[in-house]
Structures are given as C-alpha cells and as structure tokens.
Amino acid sequence: MVELSLFEKLFACGFVRKTLIVFAIALLWQIYALWLDNPLMFPTFIDSVKGFYSVMISGELIVKTIASLKMLLTAYAFGIVIALVLTVLAIGSRIGSDILEVTSSMFNPLAPIALLPLAMLWFGIGKASIIFVIVHAVVWAMALNTYNGFSSVSSTLRMVGKNYELGRLGFVFYILIPAALGSIVTGLKVSWAFGWRTLIAAELVFGVSSEGGGLGWFINEKKNQLDIDLVFAGLLMVIIIGIAVENIIFKTIEKKTVVKWGMKF
After folding, report:
1. Residue 60's Cα: distance from chain center in Å?
2. How far apart are CA 21 and CA 25, in angstroms?
3. pTM for the complete prediction?
4. What are the φ/ψ torsions at residue 5 (nearest 5 degrees)?
5. Is the dihedral of CA 254, 256, 258, 264 positive or negative?
6. Per-residue pLDDT tens digits for 223-264
7. In the chain, count of helices (H) and strands (E)?
8. How does pLDDT run across 87-101, given as a tens digit for each residue?
9. 99-102 long-range contacts, Cβ below 8 Å, gap at least 24?
C-alpha cells in the first residue's frame, strides 16, 4: 500500500480544500479592490474585516444579528408547522393532495418579496409583515420536499404500518417521517436558505420599524451613511451565519440521522 504524501493527506480533507477556496476568494477580493482603488465602490477585504471587527466589538452588529435571527426562527417554526400540516393532509387524502398541488402551483412561484406591499397593508410596517413573507418563503420548499419524501416511501414499509394497525398520525410519525427523513432534512435546509435571504431582503426595505431593524437594515443604513466597509461587514455576517448553519447544524443533523442510519452516504 502506497503511503500518501503530506500534501495528498491535506488535500483529501474537505475542510482544508474549502478553506483554500475561501482564502482564494479573499485574495482575489483584495487584489481587485486594490486595483480598482475606490473604497466607496469596493473596499478591500482587509478594510472589510477591520470594519467587521469594529462593529462586533462595539456590539452593534451582534445586536442586529440577534434581532434578525429571533425573527427568522419564529417565522421558520411557523412555516414548518404549516408545511407539515399541509403534507399530512396531502398524504392522507386525495383532496388534501389536490389542495397542496393547487396551492403550491399558485403561490410557490410568487417571490416572497413581491408580497411585501400586501403584507404592509394587512399587518402594517413591522415584525408581523416580515414574519409573513418569511413564512411564505419557508412553507412551499418544506412542504414539497416532505411530500416527495413521503410519496417515495416503499410499499413494504407502508404495509408494515398497516400490519401494526397504526392510526393516521401514528403512521406519519412512526413510518413516513423516519423513512423520508433525507427529504425532510433537505426541505429544512432549502427552506432555511429561502427564509434567511427573504429576511435580509425584507429588512433592507422596511426593517427600521422593527426596533431599529435587524441585519438587513444595518446593511442599508451603512450604505446610506457611505460606510461601505461596514456594508461588506454586514454581508460577511450573512455569509458566516449561512456557512455555520449549513456546515455545523445541518451537517450534524445529517450525520446523527440519515448518514448514521445508512440512508445517505
């Protein structure tokens, strides 16, 4: 057996490869910004990191981020519950399936941000409007992925549920959800990403009314003040949270469930 060199061992590690990609992007960012030489248009990576550090130390960015995450988690929870209800109805009856098919065809193509004017009319300018558009972003991705997972459960497992004489809810929780967990986790990831970007977009528009605004409003506010390095600092926070949720929370869930149980490799 040929022993791998140190370079080959390092390159075989996914974390090392991804770190190198991030380093390359940061280097290209720095080079392009230096070449452009226009901080109001495109600050350097180093200046953006310095700005990020300053607003983290002052606590301003932390407060804005926490405000955004609280709102997102609230809307995310509502969206998941609604999606599960729609999916359970769809898997349990023909009319429920028709309802999910028709409503998803009607509303899924609607960009959540396009509903902002209606949300403002119905709920006013504040948290309720932002939560409404995030719920819209979360529901359809979650419902469709979960429904596809439920639909792909083998007939053998379905027969097991019938043999145990499980009720509708028991059949869903003990047979369908474990068997379709891969699709459910995918739905959770996709709906989280949709909800996160919808939140930032909504706050960019009218987040100021919600206790001074969240992370999206921080970005908009710094743009108006021409603190472009802090705009990029806010964008860095959006990216960092996205990477952390994807690679820490959801990766851990996958490893502890679908990978551990041999449902995904």
Report:
1. 23
2. 6
3. 0.82
4. -75, 170
5. positive
6. 888 888 899 999 999 988 888 888 888 888 877 776 666 555
7. 14, 0
8. 888 887 788 888 888
9. 100/143, 100/147
What six digits make up the tokens of 186? 């995918």
Q: What pLDDT does residue 81 have? A: 93
Q: What are phi and psi of 7, to 5 degrees?
A: -60, -45
Check residue 239 and give left, alpha or beta (phi > 0: left; psi -120 to 50: alpha): alpha
Place of tokens 């027969």: 159
Residue type, 109: P
Contact assessment for residue 116 and residue 202, using Cβ atoms and an 8 Å cutoff: yes
Given a contact cutoff of 8 angstroms between Cβ atoms, the answer to whether 99 and 90 are in contact is yes
User: Looking up tokens 């609604």, which residue turns up?
Assistant: 82
- Separation of alpha carbons 83 and 143, rounded Å: 5
